[in-house]
Q: What sequence folds into this?
C-alpha cells in the first residue's frame, strides 16, 4: 500500500467522494445532525485539498483511505479520516495518523485535534487507543444537547 499526497493533479475526486461516503455510511441513522460528508462534492473535495493538507492510501490502484489536515494556531486539525469498509482494521488509519503526527511536527504544532460525534463510542475508544484524550464537548448550531466531542493528542 502506498500513501501519497493529494494535490491539484489528483484527478480522482469522484472515487475519493465514494470512499468517504462509503466509510461514513454506518453513521446514517445513528448520528444527528447528518454527517457533513453528505454535503461534499467532487468540486468541494478539490477545493478542500487545495486549502488543507491531504493524503490518500492506495492499494492495487484503488483508494482505500484518506485524511485531511488543517493547521490551526495551536494544533493540527484532522478531518475526514476515512478508511474503506473492506480495509478497516488493517492499520491504514494508524499509518495516516503517523503522517498527521509528522505533519504537525513539520509545522511546529504540539498537538493533533479532531472531533467525533457523541454517538460514536467505538470511534472514541479507537482514538483513546491511539493516544487521544477528550478535551471538550460541543453542540452543532441549533442543538441544545452535546452532539460531538473534541479530542486531542499531544505530539512529542
A:
Amino acid at each position: 500500500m502506498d500513501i501519497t499526497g493529494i494535490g491539484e493533479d489528483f484527478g480522482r475526486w469522484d472515487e475519493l467522494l465514494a470512499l468517504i461516503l462509503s466509510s461514513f455510511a454506518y453513521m446514517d441513522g445513528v448520528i444527528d445532525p447528518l454527517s457533513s460528508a453528505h454535503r461534499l462534492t467532487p468540486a468541494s473535495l478539490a477545493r478542500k485539498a487545495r486549502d488543507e493538507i491531504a493524503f490518500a492510501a492506495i492499494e492495487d490502484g484503488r483508494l482505500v483511505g484518506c485524511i485531511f489536515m488543517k493547521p490551526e494556531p495551536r494544533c493540527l486539525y484532522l478531518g475526514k479520516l476515512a478508511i474503506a469498509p473492506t480495509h478497516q482494521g488493517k492499520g491504514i488509519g494508524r499509518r495516516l495518523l503517523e503522517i498527521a503526527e509528522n505533519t504537525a511536527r513539520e509545522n511546529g504544532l504540539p498537538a493533533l485535534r479532531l472531533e467525533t460525534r457523541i454517538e460514536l463510542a467505538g470511534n472514541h475508544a479507537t482514538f483513546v487507543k491511539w493516544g487521544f484524550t477528550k478535551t471538550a464537548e460541543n453542540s452543532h448550531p441549533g442543538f441544545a444537547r452535546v452532539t460531538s466531542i473534541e479530542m486531542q493528542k499531544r505530539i512529542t
About this structure: Residues 137 and 149 are 4 Å apart (CA to CA). DSSP finds four helices and seven strands in the chain. The first strand starts at residue 2 and ends at 5. Helices lie at 13-24, 42-51, 92-106, 121-129.
